[in-house]
Amino acid sequence: MRKQIAAANWKMNLTFEQADQLINELLNFSFQLNDNQLVLLGVPFPYLMMAQHHLRLSNGIFVCAQNCASTSNGAYTGEVSAEMLKSMDISFVIIGHSERREYYHENNALLSEKVNKALESKVKPVFCCGEPLAVREGNNQNSFVEQQLKESLFHLSSDQIRNFIIAYEPIWAIGTGKTATSEQAQEMHAHIRNVFAEKYGMEIADSISILYGGSVKGANAADIFGKPDVDGGLVGGASLVATEFQKIINSLKA
Ligand code: PEP
């Protein structure tokens, strides 16, 4: 059965002290995660070790990086390699967030290199896709997302795609307070699963966790996560408030 996942994306927020406090607050809640549920905390690079230290005894909660380099170790000032992440026991990394695509010009080809580097180091990608508003308004979102997936992931083998994590994040819903309806999310998630089924077969497509991202909060998480092809969420703003993120975690399907 595919995993149900609540993934926090803190982005470039919080001082070290605030980050430490937020993790402590989260750990003070008694989550009842079952074997099929995962919580990921996507913290900024400088806080990875601190978060890792806090979470070492927690069950089902893992630290996640927000990015990794498309190259191996070497003369790349300011970059962080997947191998470095793995050497710190960080096993998850967000790749292809729309903010990185837009502000740092990361295209589908470069993202496919990042995915390769992550997999080579046994760091699991949380691969983001999603369309801008103009594409949605033109009703071209299905082919747009399909192309992102094909150009960055379709070179992977069936074994590499099994249990993969995708985050569908319509750009018009990120940080805007505007959420896709649960029906819009389900429609796109079913499409994404179908895109993988056509290439890799239904059994593998069914093993992929497809998260929704875009203004998820405590009040709407249960409705969105309740849809059959929505396997949890990638959460920005609401993951910075412990009580909100707790509600989101509690909204995961069993
Ligand atoms: C995100 O950054 O991945 C995100 C979905 O942000 P928000 O929840 O704030 O819309």
What does this structure look like?
The protein has helices at residues 16-28, 48-55, 82-87, 98-103, 108-120, 133-137, 141-153, 158-161, 182-200, 202-207, 221-225, 242-250, and strands at residues 4-9, 37-42, 61-65, 92-95, 124-129, 165-168, 209-213, 232-235. With 254 residues, it is of the alpha/beta class. The protein has a single domain, classed as TIM Barrel, CATH 3.20.20. An eight-stranded parallel beta barrel has the order 1-2-3-4-5-6-7-8, surrounded by five helices. Strand 2, helix 2 and strand 3 (61-65) form a beta-alpha-beta unit. The radius of gyration is 17 Å and the shape is globular. The chain starts with a strand and ends with a helix. The structure holds phosphoenolpyruvate (PEP).
Give the arrangement of secondary structure elements:
Blueprint: E1 4-9, H1 16-28, E2 37-42, H2 48-55, E3 61-65, H3 82-87, E4 92-95, H4 98-103, H5 108-120, E5 124-129, H6 133-137, H7 141-153, H8 158-161, E6 165-168, H9 182-200, H10 202-207, E7 209-213, H11 221-225, E8 232-235, H12 242-250
Parallel strand pairs: 1-2, 1-8, 2-3, 3-4, 4-5, 5-6, 6-7, 7-8
Phosphoenolpyruvate binds next to strand 8.
Could you write a compact summary of the structure shown?
By secondary structure, the protein is of the alpha/beta class.
What are the defining features of this structure?
254 residues; alpha/beta; TIM Barrel; eight-stranded parallel beta barrel; 12 helices; 8 strands; globular; binds phosphoenolpyruvate
